[in-house]
Amino acid sequence: MSFIEWDDKYSVNITKVDDQHKHFMSIINKLYDALMVDQHPKPVIEKIVNELVDYTDYHFKTEENWFEQHNYSDKEAHKQQHDNLRAQVYKLRDDFAANRVEIDLSVLSFLTEWLVEHILGSDMEYSPYLISKNV
Ligand SMILES: [Fe+2]
């Protein structure tokens, strides 16, 4: 089962970015599958959350490196959005590890909505510029 599915409307026409967005979605789906199992031992969920956190940072760095390299005019505002999500997923990981929060479907909804909104908004905006720079 999938919680979120790739759709071509999410394409920013940069293969590396699209592939990373697809991978990000696959981690959300992996988390969903794990949550749907009756018994889902905490270490299993924790491992996927860690993967999600690491991949979030890795993916954002890919974009931010290009922004720096090509001096993208909106780089600061875009990076600010990334930093906001970074802070939220770091907090989620730490709160979950310390038993302060549960990971449930509302977390998946939040991540999915954030991702889709970010792709269709801010990521689409850099697309023509970075394509013109042959990234
Ligand atoms: Fe982005």
Helix content: over 70%
- Helix-strand makeup class: mainly alpha
Number of strands: 0
Uncertain stretches of 5 or more adjacent residues = none
Give me the CATH superfamily. Hemerythrin-like
Number of helices: 4
- How much strand content do the residues show? under 5%
Order of helices and strands: HHHH
- The CATH topology corresponds to Four Helix Bundle (Hemerythrin (Met), subunit A)
Distance between the termini: 34 Å
Rounded to an integer in angstroms, the radius of gyration calculated over CA atoms is 16 Å
Number of domains: 1
Which CATH top level class fits? Mainly Alpha
Oligomer: single chain
Sheet of most strands? none
What is the architecture at the second tier of CATH? Up-down Bundle
Structure at a glance:
75% of the residues lie in helices and 0% in strands. The protein has 135 residues and is mainly α. Fe (ii) ion is lined by residues 63, 78, 82, 118, 122-123.
Topology:
Layout: H1 15-36, H2 42-69, H3 75-97, H4 105-132
Helix pairs in contact: 1-2, 1-4, 2-3
Bound molecules: fe (ii) ion (FE2).
Give an account of the 3D structure.
With 135 residues, this protein is mostly helical. The chain has one domain (8-132): Hemerythrin-like (Four Helix Bundle (Hemerythrin (Met), subunit A)). Helices cover 75% and strands 0% of the residues. It has four helices and no strands. It has helices at residues 15-36, 42-69, 75-97, 105-132. Helix 1 (15-36) runs antiparallel to helix 2. The longest helix is centred in the middle third of the chain and has 28 residues, at 42-69. It is globular, with a radius of gyration of 16 Å. The chain starts with 14 loop residues before the first helix and ends with a helix. The structure holds fe (ii) ion. Fe (ii) ion (FE2) is lined by residues 63, 78, 82, 118, 122-123.
